[in-house]
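ok trying again, last paste got cut off:
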Amino acid sequence: MDNVSALNLNTSISGWHPPLWYQFDECAVTPYGFIFYFSVKVFNLILGFPGNVLVMWQILTKKSEGSTSDIFFFNLSIIDAYFCLMTSLDLINRLYLDDQIIWYFQRFAYGLKDMAPLFLTCICLDRYIAVVHPIVFTGIQDNRIRMGVSLVVWGLILTYALTKCILDVLRVYEVFSGVILFAFFLMVFCNLSIIWVLRKSVAGKEVMNPIKKKAFKTVITVLAIIVVNYLPPVALMPFASTYSFVDFHCKITVSVYSIMDLSCTVEPLLYVSKMKRSVLCCCLESRSKKPINVSV
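nice, full thing came through this time. structure:
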């Protein structure tokens, strides 16, 4: 803490303030969590932003009908691209400006990212209905339904983001924790249900239905994103009272949120890799048989 006292003394004498990238003066002695945090943000800006733009471009320029979940992927990419693009402003404001108005925009961006799992949940539910309730899915393939759902989700996301922007971050943390837990348990339910249906459909057969196999892979991918990127904040934050101020604010929070922010790059990379494989398969299959009209 002697270093912190020296920094405060320098501030009072010369007017110089310590770099804001470690947020609290107490974090000056352990800035490594913030180094990792901003390394992740720069990584997202370099790979995540162009990756999400590529996903949106691929969805908009598709000649075929594509997947019914593409609408949710598109909206998720908008959030991730915006969050990645805010990195430059975030760095400049933390390191040099410390402008309160810009802090509002930063909190708004973090609010959007907090609620991004809602679109992941929509993707999972879409896959669940396609596999477990195919008859119902056949009657709701109209993309206008998914556009309506997306508008409702955007309403919830913007409400939360504006609330986080105006109010203190800790006041909306309970909502964030609830959304992550809800998304996680819903993902587990969908995943187990799809596994159960696939096991029954594969029994006695050597080849798995390609549509159901595709849905299963999508749900597994989204579940992995939820578990790896979004569950750590919920798992660690309830024990905040047991940590010291330095451990909680300088090490734990910045580390778990850095892991959560990595989803901005992981999600588009997984989508792009899936698109490349699907395009190749379509080219190969078009020579041997007619394309399937029903898309999932």
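cool. The longest helix spans residues 173-202. The chain has eleven helices and no strands.
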